[in-house]
Request: fold
Amino acid sequence: MDLVIGIGNRLRKDDGIGPTLVESLRPIDGAEFHVVHQLTPDLAPRLSEIDRVLFVDAAINAAEITLEPVAPAQGHGIGHAMTPTAFLDLAAIAFDAKPPAWLLAVPGYDFGIGEGLSLEARLRLPEATRTIGMWLGTGSETARV
Reply:
């Protein structure tokens, strides 16, 4: 089972890229989708029950969409201070969960207070959706129709 986690705060404009992308995906056999405001310890046990995980989040000061493997690394704090690498570290220590993990980082342009993605962020959604589809092994047909 693949787990795709969309991370972000929809009240901070482009920070909502992760949830927007993940909620746009159609159900796929062998994949589970979660949308979270931030990574929290209560989701960590789920990592012991999956084959691999993809974190989808907005990137600050990035020019391109990137998809890169991530590994557990010590981190501090909870909430947005808990990065995917710190979250993986928590899951490994507390639950012996060590699934292969990737981070899909999508450039954000406006992180001000407010709802809705900027035009620039919305223009990145099709490419990001195709990237998720390739990661899931379904090609580019992952968006709901």
